[in-house]
Design brief:
The complex is a heterodimer of chains A (242) and B (176).
Chain A (H helix, E strand, L loop, with lengths): L15 H8 L14 H4 L11 H9 L3 H6 L11 H5 L6 H10 L8 H11 L11 H15 L19 E3 L4 H5 L5 H9 L4 E2 L10 H4 L3 H17 L4 E4 L2
Parallel strand pairs in A: 1-2, 1-3
Chain B lengths: L1 E2 H11 L16 E3 L6 H21 L29 H7 L1 H10 L3 E3 L3 H11 L7 E3 L1 H8 L30
Parallel strand pairs in B: 2-3, 3-4
Helix pairs in contact in B: 1-2, 2-6
Classes of the chains: A mainly alpha (242), B mainly alpha (176).
Chain lengths: 242, 176
């Protein structure tokens, strides 16, 4: 008697891996994993919550999409790229992790990062601490006044929106808010070498939590504010400081 | 899009930025340097890592610089980036940082120079859990120290061993 045929249903939904491969250059080589474990061997997050970079790639390959999209390990990988740097097949694990973060509903992503991103979006300065441009200007001028009393630094400047300056510098929000004296050494270096530089009243803040949040739209918006300000000021070089 | 680090190196080579390490010749305070992932491995590579070392050695003396292992593009992430400092997984963050802690302790350095805000925060916190309690400073602080222009109240992150070293001549008392 003829047996009943086994009907294998064709999967109609795209897997998480397939979706991510569409996002990454060259598909992130996500199908090329040899399971060699070089990634896991050099990853400081290996073992946390029973996860490691190799496991993440294998889970993607096996279609364990729900587990991948819910593991908090996505926030314990810092996307440092040491894994892909060491990987013989150039498997873009950080790219996979970034998309794991992006698959979380926005309001469920880690609150500290979410708040910092939203804070940065709320002001043209892009400061994750919500520092407005007049506050920044006040702190800079206040500190500058003190430095100008030092012999040898009577003419030191810390310009904001200086047209045609050579360098556009960014500044982490931490210094103006918590430790303004830590801005001084860099100013002194720039003064001693006679560098032409400026901050921007818009987009001076160096941090970008929207990138950590995996919110592409917000990340782009914040980056553009700084880039546009630099362009408007006609600077030659956008410099990332320490 | 550039980093300030190669400029530090260029300015020192050109003689525009006058630093020297005489202040550390007898003290022999030891320094190591962190390779920030975003600056080195993810962006400007080992060329920038080399510039960082050139600048630091010019400021503290070649014999007083001790490299971590592994280093440059192969260095380990310290765990300060990727939003780790703002997410609720603090225990995991410190556990992640254990590798970095062990690396720094192995150098026996008194200070770790961190040309990155996230690295600075994380490595500063890690030192509180380490047997050696190293100091964590930005490169700009060491450059100004070596140039003799770092005054008393610009030394927040220096320990007692360096609070009064190579002060500007005029900075005799509490200035501001």
């Amino acid at each position: 008697m003829a047996e009943e045929p086994i009907v294998i249903k064709k999967k109609t939904e795209k897997s998480f891996k397939d979706m991510v491969m569409e996002q990454l250059p060259e598909g992130g080589n996500l199908n090329a994993c040899l399971t060699c474990g070089t990634c896991a061997a050099g990853c400081p997050a290996t073992g946390m919550h029973g996860m490691d970079p190799r496991k993440v790639v294998r889970m993607a390959a096996l279609g364990m999409d729900e587990e991948l999209k819910q593991t908090p390990w996505a926030w314990m990988c810092s996307m440092c790229t040491r894994c892909v740097h060491a990987c013989p097949m150039n498997v873009n694990i950080p790219g996979l992790v970034f998309n794991m973060r992006a698959s979380w509903p926005r309001e469920e992503r880690p609150r500290g990062i979410l708040r910092s991103c939203d804070m940065a979006l709320s002001t043209d300065t892009c400061s994750a601490m919500g520092t407005r441009d007049e506050d920044f200007q006040f702190v800079v001028e206040d500190v500058l006044e003190g430095v100008r009393m030092q012999p040898g630094f009577e003419t030191i400047e810390a310009p904001i929106d200086k047209q045609g300056a050579y360098f556009f510098l960014n500044q982490n929000s931490r210094e103006p808010n918590n430790e303004p004296e830590e801005m001084i050494p860099l100013w002194k270096i720039l003064h001693m070498v006679g560098a032409s530089w400026t901050y921007g009243s818009k987009g001076w803040a160096a941090e970008n939590y929207c990138m950590f949040l995996a919110d592409d739209e917000a990340w782009e918006k914040i980056t553009r504010v700084a880039a546009e300000q630099a362009e408007e000021l006609g600077v030659t070089s956008f410099v990332n400081t320490e | 899009m550039e980093s300030i680090i190669p400029y530090y190196a260029q300015w020192i080579r050109e003689g525009k930025l006058k630093v020297n390490s005489d202040w550390n010749q007898d003290l022999k305070v030891k320094f190591t340097v962190q390779d920030p992932c975003n600056l080195v491995r993810k962006s400007f590579g080992d060329a920038l890592a080399d510039d960082m070392r050139f600048v630091l050695k010019a400021c503290v003396g070649e014999d007083n610089f001790i490299d971590m292992n592994p280093n440059k593009s192969n260095n380990y992430c310290c765990g300060g980036g990727g939003g780790f400092l703002q997410n609720p997984y603090k225990e995991e963050r410190l556990q992640y940082g254990q590798k970095k802690l062990d690396q720094i302790v192995a150098t026996q350095a008194d200070y770790c120079v961190t040309p990155c805000h996230n690295c600075h925060s994380q490595i500063h916190e890690l030192s509180e859990h380490a047997p050696t309690h190293w100091g964590t400073v930005h490169l700009w602080t060491i450059i100004c120290l070596a140039a003799g222009v770092l005054c008393r109240n610009e030394r927040t992150y220096l320990h007692d061993d360096l609070k009064e070293v190579n002060l500007p001549e005029w900075d005799e008392t509490e200035f501001l």
